[in-house]
Amino acid sequence: MALDILYFAWVRERIGIDSERIDQPDSRATVADIVTLLAARGGGYAEALDDPARLRAALDQRFVPLDSPVGEARELALFPPVTGG
Amino acid sequence: MALDILYFAWVRERIGIDSERIDQPDSRATVADIVTLLAARGGGYAEALDDPARLRAALDQRFVPLDSPVGEARELALFPPVTGG
Amino acid sequence: MKRIAVQPEDFDAAAELAALEALGGGGVASFIGIVRGEGGLVALELEHYPAMTEPQVDRIVDQALERWPLLGVTVIHRVGRLEPGARIVFVGTASRHRTAALESCAFLIDWLKSHAPFWKKEYFADGEGRWVVARAEDEAKAAGWQSF
Amino acid sequence: MKRIAVQPEDFDAAAELAALEALGGGGVASFIGIVRGEGGLVALELEHYPAMTEPQVDRIVDQALERWPLLGVTVIHRVGRLEPGARIVFVGTASRHRTAALESCAFLIDWLKSHAPFWKKEYFADGEGRWVVARAEDEAKAAGWQSF
User: Fold this and answer.
1) Alpha-carbon span C38 to B1, nearest angstrom
2) C134 vs chain B: nearest CA distance in angstroms?
3) Does the D2-147 domain belong in CATH 3.90.650.10?
4) What is the pLDDT of residues C87-123, one digit of tens each?
5) ipTM above 0.90, yes or no
6) In order of start, what are the domains of chain B with their CATH numbers?
7) N or C: which terminal CB in chain D sees fewer CB atoms within 10 Å?
8) Which InterPro entries did the record assign (chains A, B) (predicted)?
């Protein structure tokens, strides 16, 4: 199944694109598993994603902890902690 | 020495005047002493002032407890608890 | 900036906010109190103690300025006869810190309620007038700031 | 009344307040956040997650509506490039109770800071851009409402 991945703020800048589509490896995979998979690509991906403690995530537009299984979600967003308001 | 007494809200309405001047009995007299003195006049005064627990006071435009000595103050105001805002 | 007014006239909330926004802080908090037309209320009469009101509001504002890092405070309190829907009071604060702006705004309105010489009388359709009774809750709220 | 907007355009704070005042409650609280021009800042760029932002702000507003007896809530958050002095955010609440209006206003701004998908980038006179780092203090402030 296809999973759309969105990047925001400095995660987006380091990776150099704002979104992409990947084949979801396994519905039991967690957000953290996918972060590890992407970081392994090296370059900007490693720069953006190598420290998961600095990352936050949303699945289908809902904030989730990084250890959440991706399940049937169609959209995963990765970004730093929010700074609105 | 003369002491101006001001009344507000239902204290003013019951007494029927908004201010008057009295001879201050004694600089050691407290606000409560003056309230007692005025209440003893009976009529609207008694109606307005017979329950000191329902009254608040200011001496020279500063809130004070009823047991404060009037001292050198020139103006005593008597009124119910405030309800602004 | 410190602006205090006690007046029968209405005020321009937008102009008051704009003046606070122009101070260069990051946040402006405000509270506007309005006459509620409940239970057949036709008007509210606000009595005050003219010689005391502004100096007393000024003291309350000074306490807020001591307690929080504020760039500006505006307090406008109306007096006289006000009809349902009319504005009674405006409290606005500007600060670099949103928490300072919000807390000081809450403090100011709580203290105005319990520490400024205003008295409200409600008038109803049958012509009857009734003095508003001070609420113990308001006293407690104001007292709560003491130990803040 | 529930009004939520995420937009690049400025907003008319007076009109927003007037709409809240017209709801018949006794109090309207508001907070306006403004870009501070400190340290040579020339602009702030606000990025957001378009598909998520409004639904997420809506959830935050619903929490406020569950928690406090409110007659109306307005949240307007700007996105895009904003210069010093520009408004970033407006939060306004109307209630019969001043405490409900003030507390919910503080809650909403705290939660927007830590629970809505916005990211700020600061630009300085030398052309350099720097992403604003989330403050632990803001997280703590938002978390404080959980146990409220």
Assistant:
1) 48
2) 5
3) no
4) 999 999 999 999 999 999 999 999 999 999 999 999 9
5) yes
6) 2-79 (3.10.20.30)
7) C
8) Beta-grasp_dom_sf, Mopterin_synth/thiamin_S_b, ThiS/MoaD-like
